[in-house]
Amino acid sequence: MLKREALRLFSSQLHTLWSNCASMTLAKHPFSASFGGFSRWSESYERSMLRSKGGVDMGISSRIITKNALSLRSCMDRHNGGFRRIDDETRKAHPVAPYCQFVRDSDVVFGEEVGARLVNGDGACRHGNLLVFSNHLMPQKLVVAVDVDEVLGSFLSALNQFIADRYSSIHSMSEYHVYEFFKIWNCSRTEADIRVHEFFKTTYFKEGIHPIPGARHALHRLSTFCNLSVVTSRQNAIKDHTLKWIEEHYPGLFQEIHFGNHFALDGQSRPKSEICRSLGAQILIDDNPRYALECADIGIRVLLFDYDNSYPWCKTGSATSHPLVTKVHNWQEVEHQLVSLALP
């Protein structure tokens, strides 16, 4: 009897000591040995000193969650061996966007594996599937298509610099009341296409396109509750460089990458609406009003991206009057809109 009581007392003291140490560790330092980072989501949680059992998140990012929830960001859950679809091809990809899940006020459940496929006893977490933590089922992810030029990268600025240096024709962003270059450059459509393909072969294109501010960090957060894919009108002729550029600036964030091959010198083109429908995309983020209307007319919600209110071509036409089209001016607004759509 005395031994049992002594054991119970020792166990109680050990539990208290562990809780206090864990509280101090979580309050002061991120995990550095086996975890890439640690996020505290509310001051009330810190004050509670782990009074309730927190949910552990084995994703690499964090999801918007309520108070008293603990998120651990794993550095071990890269999807090694993952494959990414590029149009009709399947290619070996760098680590794809990880899936972050969380639970509230429930026991911690660690997976049998920590990696591309997490198994927690209730089932596997594969790319695109749900993961159940202690009777808490995550909602279905939003399927989001993302444009490249003027949404992920500043294509037009680099193109204008090339046109000025090569053809002594100076143009500013404010002149592009429509995103059809021949109308701005006062040349034929064929001549404009030839100039653009010349641009593709230069360092202006290969090194001069810079990411849109805020895009990478916003997409990293969005990847926790969105399945992200690229849908671009870019030509097949620049497919390889585009893939390299995306992997350099937006590594592992996109599941699939599709090219419309619009305004190409050869090969067939494919409408963005058709690509988005094949993906099951619920939302398109694009700067072109024509594509916005094309997709909105088949029931896809569109965030019309007008960065810093500086894209004249976004301000013409009837796109913004469509009930499924919403104007956004930066990636923070994109994130806010998608969070609103994701909430039940």
UniProtKB/TrEMBL annotation:
InterPro entries: 5'(3')-deoxyribonucleotidase, 5_3-deoxyribonucleotidase-like, HAD-like_sf, HAD_sf
Name used for this protein in its record: Uncharacterized protein LOC105053027
GO MF annotation terms: 5'-nucleotidase activity
Pfam families: NT5C
Any single GO BP term: deoxyribonucleotide catabolic process
Transmembrane segments: none
Active site, per annotation: 147 (nucleophile), 149 (proton donor)
Superkingdom field: Eukaryota
